Amino acid sequence: MDTELDFDTIRTIIEKNADKVESLIDSYVDKKEQLISLLQDIQSEYNYIPQDVLIKISQKLDIPLSQVFSVATFFQAFSLKPRGRHTITVCLGTACHVKGGQRLVDKMERDFGLKPGETTEDERFTLETANCLGCCALGPVVVVDGKYESQVNPEKLEKVLKNYK
Q1: Residue 38 contacts residue 21 (beta carbons within 8 Å)
Q2: Burial letters for 113-150: b for 16+ Cβ neighbours within 10 Å, e otherwise?
Q3: For 86-105, what is the HEC assignment?
Q4: Where are the alpha helices (DSSP H) in 17-132?
Q5: In the sheet that 147-149 helps form, which strands lie side by side, from edge to edge?
Q6: What confidence tens digit (pLDDT) does each residue in 3-60 have?
Q7: Cα distance between residue 72 and residue 59, in whole Å
Q8: Is the pLDDT confidence value at 2 over 50?
Q9: What is the pLDDT of residue 141?
Q10: pLDDT of residue 11
Q11: Which of 56, 88, 99, 150 ranks highest by number of CB atoms within 10 Å?
Q12: Is it true that the peptide bond before 154 is cis, omega within 30 degrees of 0?
């Protein structure tokens, strides 16, 4: 599924929160070494880091844009694309894969048109995969907004996701 972004809506949200973003950036002007913390604060505000905010950070903190971009793309916790209200992570480590982890990813694609790394058009869900979540005996494992669900099959996944609007 090709997700089309509604850039007018995104722009409106950014403009509406511009003062807050300016204030956040200004609070880090003398703290360039805390770039990661600033990016976390921005992501908390938008649920992703808008491109024009990266440029503002670069300009206001006098940090090369390439360095700001490198930090923002190095850490998997940061996203440069709008994300869903709920993040679903499906473990595809060896144990979870053998126990049916891929079937869960396939179900997400069938039911929501989502592939790993994508967000639903209504921004309800973002789907991610992980190589291992470290709870192999409980697999397949799915994490929704930090809450671990064990021994998940396609039917259980459907029931779990009904709780997230």
Answers
A1: no
A2: ebebebbbbebebbbbbbeebeebebbbbbbbeeeebe
A3: EEEEEECCHHHHHCCHHHHH
A4: 18-26, 35-46, 51-61, 65-74, 94-98, 101-112
A5: 125-130, 86-91, 142-144, 147-149
A6: 455 667 666 666 666 777 888 888 888 888 889 999 999 998 888 898 889 999 999 9
A7: 15
A8: no
A9: 97
A10: 66
A11: 88
A12: no
* Residue 28 and residue 38 in contact, taking contact as beta carbons nearer than 8 Å: yes
Reading the block at residue 95, the tokens are: 């144990």
Residues above pLDDT 90, as percent of the chain: 65
> Side-chain half-sphere of 71: how many Cα atoms within 13 Å?
18
Assigned token pair, 37: 């913390």
Structure tokens at 134: 């470290």
Helix (H, G, I), strand (E, B) or coil at 127: strand
Amino acid occupying residue 149? E
Helix (H) or strand (E) holding 15, with range, is helix 7-16
Residues in the chain: 165
pTM value > 0.85? no
Tokens of 137: 């005996």
In the chain, helix, strand, coil percent, each to 5?
50, 10, 40
Query: Three-class SS of residue 123?
Result: coil
